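Anyone up for a design puzzle?
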């Protein structure tokens, strides 16, 4: 089985501590996590490196915290994740803080703690990703 890779998006001032806890918990359970504060390369072009990490990830966890609605960085990361088709999850301190582009995304509040949220995600990740197929007109009708 290949290792699942998780990109963690957060607003620096209010979300870094939560991102660190999520990464630690998921890594203890065999997942690889990437978040800017710890994993950026000195001297690398910021958005190239972030886009590369997002493309390499299987999942993206958005930590929604006090500064998220105003964070242009998180909004850019959301756009990249959508464009490359990554499964997205929201870890919310407060669901009302979600940027509009995350309103339809699977959201988990952290009121029960980071561990319980991560355990729910790990169970979800055990299931295969939904596959969408487009039927051609020549396909037989079932």
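Challenge accepted. My sequence:
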């Amino acid at each position: 089985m290949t290792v699942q890779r998780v990109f963690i998006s957060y607003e620096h001032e209010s979300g870094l501590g939560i991102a660190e806890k999520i990464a630690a918990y998921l890594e203890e359970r065999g997942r690889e996590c990437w978040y800017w504060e710890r994993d950026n390369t000195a001297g690398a072009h910021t958005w190239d490196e972030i886009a590369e990490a997002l493309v390499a990830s299987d999942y993206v966890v958005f930590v929604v915290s006090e500064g998220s609605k105003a964070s242009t960085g998180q909004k850019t990361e959301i756009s990249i994740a959508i464009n490359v088709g990554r499964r997205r999850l929201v870890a919310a301190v407060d669901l009302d803080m979600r940027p509009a582009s995350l309103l339809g995304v699977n959201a988990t509040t952290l009121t029960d703690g980071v561990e319980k949220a991560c355990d729910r995600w790990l169970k979800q990740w055990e299931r295969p990703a939904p596959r969408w197929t487009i039927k051609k007109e020549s396909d037989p009708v079932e």
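A detail worth pointing out: The chain has a mean pLDDT of 79.
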